[in-house]
Protein: Molybdopterin molybdenumtransferase
Organism: Pedobacter metabolipauper
Amino acid sequence: MITVSEAKQLISECTTPLMPIEVSLKDASGYVLAADIFARYDIPAFRQSSMDGYALIFEDHKKELNLVGEMAAGTPHSFPIKSGETSRIFTGAPLPDGADTVVMQEKISKANGKIILHDVQLRLGSNVRGIGSEVKAGELAMQQGNLLSPAAIGFLAGIGITTVVVFPMPKVAIIVTGKELQQPGLELSLGQVYESNSYSLSAALKGEGIHMVEVMEADDNLEILTNILQSALENSDVVLLTGGVSVGDYDFVIEASTRCGIEQIFHKVKQKPGKPLFFGRKDQKLIFGLPGNPSSVLSCYYNYVLPALKDLSQKQNTVKEITAELSQDHKKPAGLTHFLKGKYEHGKATPLNAQESFRLSSFAQANCLILLNEEQQEFNAGDSVTVMLLPD
Ligand SMILES: Nc1nc2c(c(=O)[nH]1)N[C@H]1C(S)=C(S)[C@@H](COP(=O)(O)OP(=O)(O)OC[C@H]3O[C@@H](n4cnc5c(N)ncnc54)[C@H](O)[C@@H]3O)O[C@H]1N2
Ligand code: MOO
């Protein structure tokens, strides 16, 4: 059996970024840029006023000026101003030819039809956005690896970009296995449990902006599972199976994976919950066999699946690891890393009640997982522990 860090390392080594795709800028929010973007135009493309006021030749700023025209934003025509002249101008408008400075309208007065400036701070070029002051044509505007945040999208639109090359989000197939599974909303017969793993996983994926998710159900039958897994592999980048990875007579995930030509990278990790975790690879596709207990599924998702999904799309992991103070004593046997559902507040991490892996009630209240080292058995209040802060 391998350790948690060995398992993470192996998954990371098997994960390569997805082939970049071109998307419309309008659809690119949340993706990571896969190619540098160079500016095609000088932006601003003309000398632009940043204030409502009056455009002038700076040398004239102590003179009384004659008002000779007006430039509004979007005005397609300019006109020249000469020494002793000024033009009304509005924010965003092009400067008239010859003008080099704008004075805010609050800083002038009018007398005998003339404009008189009262702005001791006015300098040559005040309140003028120069040509190419945002970006210059040919300049690197945004580097590969940049997350396309709302601001990044706005910036790119503002320099005239319409499409971008990005790392796509992975297509994910979820296969829930188990003859005992019943859909929520229907009556439970003896032996049945409500199917919840596809719900929690779909919700987690949606929260990461992964919307191409297909959910399939497989009975505890090797032939059926093999066929479903085969079709999932054809249509997705990542396959998440839940259940059927332990040692029971009806646990067919490992055998079905072999039949589908999946290379086993590891099976079983020194951890609780989620000890029977399976990970395999076929070509560039990643296959996770998540132990069926609902809490094991999510614990393994945050520890192993999410970092891999992020690497495929070159995004930052949304689980943040920090060090915190354990708020109470805790004992565990040596041999397995434990992930406790916990509450993190004001620098302290508190394990919640109901840690069993078949239950989700504590996970539903948790905002973190508290990592307790493999070999250590006794933990005291005040000890420093690693805490994984879960995404919202
Ligand atoms: N003899 C041993 N038995 C078990 C071991 C072991 O080492 N030796 N490991 C235990 C551990 S730890 C875990 S975790 C489970 C994992 O088993 P499987 O991955 O084969 O999962 P299943 O047996 O199919 O299901 C486990 C549990 O979870 C329920 N389940 C499954 N799928 C769903 C779903 N989609 N929604 C809700 N609940 C689900 C299922 O009904 C079971 O109760 O094995 C232990 N056994
Ligand atoms: O490894 Mo299991 O998830 O504890 O029940």
Summary: The mean pLDDT is 96. The two ends are 32 Å apart (CA to CA).
